[in-house]
Amino acid sequence: MKSKEAGMFGKVLLTLLLLATLTACSSSPYPAAPAQAYSDGYNYILGPGDSVSIVVWRNPEISSTVTIRPDGKITGTLFEDLPAAGRDPTTLAREIEQVLSKYIRDPIVSVIVAGGIGPYSEQIRVIGEAAKPQALAYKQKMTLLDVMIAVGGITDFADGNAATILRTSEGDKQYNVRLKDLIRRGDVSANVDVKPGDILIIPQSWF
Questions:
Q1: pLDDT tens across 154-189, in order?
Q2: Sheet (strand 51-56) strand order
Q3: Which of 55, 56, 182, 197 minimizes the number of CB atoms within 10 Å of its CB?
Q4: Where in the chain is the domain with CATH 3.10.560.10?
Q5: pTM, to two decimals
């Protein structure tokens, strides 16, 4: 009797394993991510925590390096509480020039990004079975491979080919990406562009 029960248990277990294999091998319910997605017109947008160098031509005593506060504003020499988050560096430079023109004749200002990862809406977020899940600053022409290098790849428990990109810039449309093929098998055809605001979701494998 025990041998019969063991045989039935073995058949059930085999069936479950086959179903799991078929499920894992089935195509993703999401379309494949487009290979190209970057825009040539992209400008870096400043966000809280970014460090910016404000260079005022011929006025080094007014030039300074400041950090954008959590409320999105900055304070520098001769001005305070100036909104900075959500602006690109060139726009911010023109606004600082307007403020400084009250004290300096025809000021020329340059704003240089010294460090940071931009506003939350522009960051690339990696969650799930990445070696080092984190938020990354978007860079022009950034690809999935660049993201994987930054987070140290995927864990041994990751279902890499079931990973998806949630594209917030397209109304939270979801795309399938093949991380296992890209990282473990060196399949460069699995490398795709990422866009500002993308969320990379890496699920755990069930077996």
A1: 999 999 999 999 999 999 999 999 999 999 999 999
A2: 64-67, 51-56, 109-115
A3: 55
A4: 123-207
A5: 0.82
